[in-house]
Specification:
The complex is a heterodimer of chains A (411) and B (305). Chain A is an alpha/beta fold and 411 residues long. Chain A folds into two domains: 35-161 and 301-366, Rossmann fold; 163-299 and 377-391, Rossmann fold. Helices cover 43% and strands 19% of the residues of chain A. Chain A has 13 helices and 16 strands. Chain A has helices at 6-23, 48-68, 94-106, 119-132, 146-152, 163-179, 195-210, 229-236, 249-261, 280-284, 302-315, 323-341, 346-355; strands spanning 35-41, 72-74, 79-81, 83-89, 112-114, 136-138, 156-158, 186-192, 214-221, 242-246, 268-271, 292-294, 357-360, 363-366, 376-382, 385-391. In chain A, strand 13 (357-360) and strand 14 (363-366) form a beta hairpin. Chain A is elongated and about 70 Å long. Chain A starts with 5 loop residues before the first helix and ends in a 20-residue tail after the last strand. Chain B is an all-alpha fold. Chain B has one domain: ABC transporter involved in vitamin B12 uptake, BtuC. Chain B has helices spanning 2-15, 22-48, 55-69, 75-97, 103-128, 141-164, 166-176, 178-183, 188-210, 219-222, 226-238, 245-263, 268-282, 287-304; strands spanning 133-134, 216-217. In chain B, helix 3 runs antiparallel to helix 4, helix 4 (75-97) runs antiparallel to helix 9 (188-210) and helix 11 crosses helix 12. The longest helix of chain B is centred in the first third of the chain and has 27 residues, at 22-48. The two termini of chain B are 36 Å apart. The chains are: A alpha/beta (411), B mainly alpha (305). The A-B interface holds A 6, 9-10, 13, 20, 24, 43-44, 46, 87-89, 91, 93-96, 98-100, 102-103, 105-107, 119-120, 123-124, 126-128, 131-132, 145, 152, 193-195, 198-199, 201-202, 220, 222-223 and B 21-23, 25-27, 30, 118, 121-122, 124-126, 129-132, 134, 136, 210, 213-216, 218, 220-221, 224, 226, 258, 261-266, 268-269, 278, 282.
């Protein structure tokens, strides 16, 4: 039946196990030679796509940047130490995330723990971060519950706002365009039936209605939909100037392509997660210009430009223009808080993060009630950059281009 | 005597949270969780040889029930509701499907998990307009551990009782030959339904008890098909026809997975796949059966010598 004998198989497995056991013997020297950073991120499973774009590259970049600069200075201990990383794969499972953090905290004895990607995993990890007293820098969690969560877990910090922030900013922007006569009153919304899509459409639907817009289409589509022809065909006959899709990455690309194919080119074309990804211009070709989406960056910031360059040099591709810069800024905050405190006291570092003002690639940042409230909420592709059109605190970096250029037909 | 030893073991295990740190306790929760699931799975699938991949459907129903009801009623009542919902679903599903056999049943149960997940998603998206639910209960890891330990003890006691009761015998006859069973006057569907429901209720409770550990519940988190597959492979490794078989599969496999994910985070899935193949290849009837065979061979040798 098989030429592989049991004995050889067992021998092979046995010797393999022995070799790996020897390789992973613990080191006993506990002299402090590094600041130990631990994280469990989704390298496999449903969250791997998001983690691979917004989270993992920034963790790698930050560690690289800090170590190239010689490490972090701990004045109270009189040393400057490099960062040393322990990383695990949480396989996109909440249970794995929780246990990996317990392992990092009690077995690996790391000094600080960085969270996994996504709203769900950050919430699942909340109680565990709290129990061990680690500051939790949630750079990729979008939740309207952030104020309550920060109350509940004093060391948790929320950097990406909630669904209402993004939905309301979009509606405000569209109201201005409508009142200026640039667009008509009709809006179509298609949302993915998953966390992000539902959160945003739940906030957007009433906001659009309150602003007097006519929602001629407001439906969800199931996660994993691959054929968007029915949606685009239906919407294209409704006479809307504004098409909004609270979509996820594969859908964001497919919706763009389907709209081009169907020559449905509304004046405002807004998509969800994925629009700010560096590959979007490659997917959409010349048609990326003028497309709006969630997020954005300041195209005039030298710090952001330098960050894009370093990121591209180390990772091989540019960061996304929404959560990446925010995630990186959250790590800069952690680093600066550690040097200001001067040692690795978790409680003192958390207190500094909560109260201090920090110099980041996003500019000067101070958290409000453990939340980053200075957020780019609406962005648009202009001249190869996903520029911020709306910010919760600052002025827009660019004026919106409305109507967006007509689609260039696919060749 | 056996009862006394079991009780002592139970007391010793119950004392574990007082002596260990967070990480071993987390491991304990994981082991108990899968121990319960594998034992419950074997309750029905062991004697009948119906491979069910619906474990996570019930597990997820339990977790969702807690997420929905936690704020509305006291916790014990929530657990009771979860058990009832699991029971009703199991009876409905059982009535519809237990006439299926072999591969059709496997495919159906896999589809069931996906169906439940999509129904929950549909309901949340279109009716409540929230996909994620928050579970804030004052329940720490040690409470989850104790509850799971209690559930495991009850499940094992039930399994022990069933293996000695008439219904267990009837199930074994059905598993061996359904035609003979029906000629003997055994109510095949009724018997299978009873066991299927019992096993489903235990799985539902396992999900309900573990829900507070995640704080945030959404369909992709609690209806993760990996849970179903791991349960099957654990039960198969240990031997689904023995009382402690599934548990003996769950403990080493869980620890192995943990060791693999700690030491080979980047190759975990590959190693896991190879391992599954190895188990099916080398131990088709489980560790305990293999051990018996091995022991019998030794005896034979001795007898010949």
């Amino acid at each position: 039946m098989t030429t592989l004998s049991r004995r050889t198989l067992l021998q092979a497995m046995g010797s393999g196990a022995l070799a790996t056991a020897l390789a992973s013997l613990p080191t006993f020297a506990q002299d402090r030679t590094a600041i130990r950073i631990g994280y469990a991120v989704s390298k496999t499973g449903a969250n791997a796509g998001g983690a691979g774009i917004s989270t993992i590259p920034n963790y790698l970049l930050w560690v690289d940047d800090v170590n190239k600069a010689g490490g972090l200075e701990l004045s109270k201990l009189g040393v400057t130490l490099p960062l040393e990383v322990t990383e695990y794969d949480d396989r996109s499972s909440a249970e794995e995330t929780v246990r990996a953090i317990e392992r990092l905290a009690t077995q690996d004895n790391v000094d600080f723990i960085l969270p996994s990607w996504g709203t769900g995993s950050n919430l699942a990890a909340g109680p565990t971060f709290d129990r061990f007293g680690f500051p939790q820098l949630a750079g990729t969690a979008v939740t309207d519950m952030a104020p309550q969560l920060a109350q509940r877990w004093k060391n948790s910090f929320w950097f990406l706002g909630g669904g209402h922030d993004y939905a309301n900013a979009l509606v405000d922007l569209l109201v201005k365009q409508r009142d200026a006569g640039a667009i008509n009153n009709k809006v179509a919304i298609a949302s993915v039936a998953d966390g992000f899509g539902i959160d945003l459409s739940k906030a957007a639907t009433p906001a659009f209605q309150a602003a007097g817009f006519e929602l001629v289409y407001d439906k969800t589509y199931p996660l994993g939909t691959s054929d968007f022809a029915p949606i685009i065909n239906e919407v294209s006959g409704l006479g809307v100037d504004t098409f909004v899709a609270f979509s996820y990455p594969p859908d964001t690309f497919a919706l763009t392509q389907q709209s081009v194919v169907a020559n449905f080119s509304p004046k405002i074309f807004y998509l969800g997660v994925g629009t700010a990804f560096p590959i979007y211009p490659n997917v959409a070709g010349p048609n990326h210009n003028g497309v709006m989406g969630v997020g954005g960056i300041d195209p005039d910031s030298d710090a952001i430009a330098a960050y894009f360059e370093r990121h591209t040099a180390l990772i091989g591709q540019a960061p996304d223009s929404w959560a990446s810069a925010v995630t990186y800024a959250s790590l800069e905050i952690l680093g600066q808080a550690i040097t200001r405190v001067g040692d690795l006291d978790k409680a003192a570092v958390s207190a500094e993060i909560a109260s201090g003002e920090f110099d980041t690639i996003l500019g000067k940042v101070k958290l409000v009630d453990n939340q980053l409230r200075a957020l780019w909420t609406v962005g648009q592709w202009q001249d190869g950059k996903f520029v911020g059109l709306a910010h919760t605190e600052r002025d827009a970096s660019r004026e919106p281009v409305v109507p967006k250029p007509a689609w260039v037909p696919a060749s | 005597m056996i009862v006394l030893v079991s009780l002592l073991a139970l007391v010793a295990l119950a004392a574990v949270p007082f002596f260990v740190g967070a990480y071993p306790l987390g491991l304990g929760i994981g082991i108990l969780g899968y121990g319960v699931l594998a034992t419950a799975w074997a309750l029905f699938s062991g004697p009948t040889r119906y491979i069910s991949l619906a474990t996570v459907a019930f597990f997820g129903i339990g977790a969702y029930t807690v997420a929905v009801l936690a704020d509305l009623m006291p916790y014990p009542l929530v657990l009771l509701c979860a058990a009832l919902i699991g029971l009703v679903v199991a009876i409905l599903v059982g009535l519809a499907t237990l006439r299926l056999a072999g591969i059709y049943f496997v495919i159906f149960t896999f589809g069931l998990a996906e169906l439940v997940r999509q129904l929950v998603t549909y309901y949340e998206v279109n009716v409540t307009r929230t996909l994620g639910r928050y579970v804030f209960l004052p329940i720490g890891p040690e409470h989850i551990y104790w509850q799971l330990l209690g559930l495991l003890a009850i499940t094992l006691a039930l399994a022990f009782w069933i293996s000695r009761a008439k219904i267990g015998l009837a199930l074994r006859v059905i598993g061996d030959d359904p035609v003979v069973a029906s000629h003997l006057g055994i109510g095949i569907t009724r018997t299978k339904l009873a066991l299927f429901s019992l096993s489903a209720v235990v799985m539902t409770l396992a999900g309900a008890i573990q829900a507070p550990r995640w704080t945030y519940i959404e369909p992709s988190i609690v209806f993760n098909p990996t849970v179903s597959f791991l349960t099957v492979i654990m039960a198969l490794l240990g031997g689904p026809n023995r009382l402690f078989g599934p548990l003996l599969g769950a403990v080493p496999l869980f620890l192995l997975f943990e060791w693999l994910s700690a030491n080979f985070p980047n190759h975990y899935s590959i190693i896991l796949g190879l391992l599954f193949i190895a188990i099916v290849f080398l131990l088709p009837n489980g560790v305990l059966a293999a051990w018996d065979k091995f022991a019998a061979r030794l005896k034979n040798k001795e007898a010949r010598a």
